[in-house]
Write a structure and sequence with these properties.
This protein is an alpha+beta fold and about 100 residues long. It contains four helices and four strands, in the order αβαβαββα. Helix content is about 40%, strand content about 20%.
Length: about 100
């Protein structure tokens, strides 16, 4: 079902795509296909908001990572400049950055 929904959404060539848990519950082959499609969209200048519980997926697919805790943005990172461990500290509220929201 998820593959059909993804195919339908990609068929309309969106400028912005919200992908919430895009690989949850699909087989390994489909995971790779979905990730490839998301990267292709990004490479073609499309905006993608990726929401995922899989840190590895976020680290692999994201250009920027925004961490929210209790409804507030507490951190902003580039994946190549952080680790899953550091992100985890922000995700549980143990750390917080002073952020200028206009620069996110």
């Amino acid at each position: 079902m998820q593959k059909v929904i993804l195919a339908r959404e990609l068929d309309v060539a969106p400028e912005i795509l919200v992908a919430a848990q895009p690989t949850r519950g699909v087989d390994i082959g489909a995971i790779e296909y979905i990730r490839h499609q998301l990267v292709a969209l990004r490479d073609n200048g499309k905006a993608i908001l990726l929401i995922s519980a899989e840190l590895e997926e976020i680290m692999t697919l994201s250009d920027r990572i925004i961490v929210m805790y209790e409804g507030e943005i507490v951190g902003a990172f580039r994946p190549e400049e952080t680790t899953e461990e550091e992100l985890g500290l922000y995700m549980v509220g143990a750390r917080r950055m002073e952020l200028d929201v206009d620069t996110l």
